[in-house]
Amino acid sequence: MKDHLARCVAEAYAQALPHRGSGRVADYIPALAKADPNRFGFALALPDGTVHTAGDADEPFSLQSVSKVFTLALALRRVGSALWGSVGREPSGSAFNSIVQLESEGGLPRNPLINAGAIATSDRLIDARSADAVVNEILDFVRARAGDASIAIDPEVAVSESETGARNRALAHFMASFGTLRHPVETVLSVYFRQCAIAMNCRQLARAGLFLAMGGRDPLTGEQLIEPHRARRINAIMMLCGHYDNSGEFAFRVGLPGKSGVGGGILCIAPGQGSIAVWSPGLTEAGTSLVGAIALEHFACAAGWSVFD
Ligand SMILES: NC(=O)CC[C@H](N)C(=O)O
């Protein structure tokens, strides 16, 4: 079985490789524009600790919106269902940084995986603590899940995010005007920008996602991190909202919950089976990794993994 999965990883990598270099590297955050579009990594983490990799699986990249999944898990753990007073759980059908729905929907963002919703989620996670304390909690969480204490924030990306963060500031102030945020805008953004700037490689990210595949329990440490029903619901949100207005296409092609980021990473969860991380910086129009989605489509097909069977 393990050999079979190792072969599926190799096959998915080989099938996607000819597409390497296609898509457009995100450049609206200048520090991200330096990424090499020819990079391509793949890692599959299994609950017994095995990790199968291909390509640039050990090269760190900017987590960007993939971080929203971890913040969501931590916020649910901290404030429970009260989180849903600050953010919804419906697909947005619009771009990740869109502002249009916010006005007609009273400043309540559609879901925690678009920028406005992630900013509102970070706000609830702060829960009257300092921004630094919350950033440390997020970092400690991903380090513990990945089993690697060296995971850190890329300071250049964090500064670049903030310097060019006019749109995110607009979203945050707009929500603040409706009373959605409980903390000062700059405190919330200081958490949000830094969580997006965490650098991880595919091997680390795949391991870090395992708790979502295993009912909220980290199979590597044995800790029950969040309740099983919360893990299930995070997966549901990833399936419906993880790729902005490209989420339907991803569900159609891959059939597994996933979350993409403009750094070119995608975290994909196969409930009960394992966790997959892919990275290739060339993006589609919707801002998701073009080569990464192709690789995941081939992998899911070869492994026979889908939540719809
Ligand atoms: N889709 C993304 O990965 C967006 C994250 C990015 N840091 C932003 O806020 O714009």
TrEMBL record:
Presence of keyword Hydrolase: yes
Entry EC no(s): 3.5.1.2
GO molecular function, one term: glutaminase activity
Gene3D superfamilies: DD-peptidase/beta-lactamase superfamily (3.40.710.10)
Any Pfam family the entry gives: Glutaminase
Residues binding substrate, per UniProt: 65, 115, 161, 168, 192, 244, 262
GO BP annotations, alphabetical order: glutamate biosynthetic process; L-glutamine catabolic process
Catalytic reactions on record: L-glutamine + H2O = L-glutamate + NH4(+)
Keywords attached to this entry: Acetylation, Hydrolase
Homology family: Belongs to the glutaminase family.
Quaternary assembly: Homotetramer.
Name the UniProt record assigns to this protein: Glutaminase
Source species of the chain: Sphingopyxis flava
